[in-house]
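Changelog-adjacent note: as of this version, every example in the card shows the full chain rather than a window. The one below runs 401 residues end to end.
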Amino acid sequence: MSNKKRNEELKLSRRTFIKAATGSVAGALILGAAAQNTGAADQNVRSFENFGISQGGEQLKTHVDSLDRTISLPKNIARVIPSGRFAQILLCSLCPEKLAAVSDFDQNESYAYARGGMGRLAELPKTGEMYSESKRDINTAKIVDVGADIVIDVGNYKEDLQFSLDYLQSNTDTSTLFINVAFAELPQAYRVLGEILDCAGRAELLAAYIEELYADIDERRKNVKTASVVLYAGNNLGLRGNSPIQNAAIAYLGGIPAESDETIDVNELTNRNIDCVVFNDHAVFHSILSGEGEAHQIWSPVSAIDRGDYAVAPALYHSWIGSPSLFPQTIGLIWLGNLLWPSVYDYDMLQKTKEFYNLFFNCALTDNEALRLLGYISADIGDTPTEWDIIFKDAALQRAE
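Full-length structure tokens:
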């Protein structure tokens, strides 16, 4: 399909929206109820051009986003609102000082954010999520009250995305921008954001780190002799499957993603050759590890579980394998490769963990904190913050190829 045809399919007819109330829009608007199909989508993040123009005396620039929407932006952007968790974590790693609000904030991670100089995030307004697994509660009234320069949405194409962004922009008088990030496109996303938000130097540093990681994996992958079948088990008692980003990470490292529907049928797995199960939910992992609880009852018939060939992704700020996909494309790849093929991806995980958090989040972990995060030692109970209290099953982490 030609680029021209793709672009035509992405464009929706322009709509005129009437604001729900005079002045600030009251209440939360759950977007996307009247969705339209945006058609086939070009999976590349498009480059952009910007230039100064004058409108009411204010210097503006334009950006053509990943939906071919031409957006007018202030030349100097100082206040940014993320549309959801993915955009939020990307902005936290790039320019946290520009955040005027957060989509949500986990108070259990306040210690870690403070360690990275981002303690102020806990005090920012919460404007909700435009897309998430459990809710769509972005609040236009709060966005208006915050008075930001731009709302940024980052992630994958969705059927009703253009409608939702146009609706949000119309009802807040705030420019809304979408950057598509399919697997392995994270460096380009950083560079685009860096240019828009006037932090290109920082963006290039992060993008170059990821590209060097990809290049290293490309070389190491040639030495993977056994393509293990790996099942990613997400949330909802580990029964949420069919995750493109996680499956792409497994395949990129040299593995075979185990096929699953959106909801995993554990009974169907009992007769299948699954070499390893990677969980995202720590509560599920601990239930299986302890031999007690509902998750243990559900997963115990699976042979990989009986052999001890399972693990749970580390989590600080966010899961290394779950959502948002910043982590599966960076530290998650390092961890998963080392877990599945330790002689091929023979990374010093202590060093890599400390390096990643220091570079991306300005969070200097001690050796003990990094080891606890990785699960190589048990976390002490008491004065130790609960975010470090993660225990892994050693047999799964030390399994041979």
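Structural remarks: Confidence is low (pLDDT under 50) at residues 1-57, 379-401.
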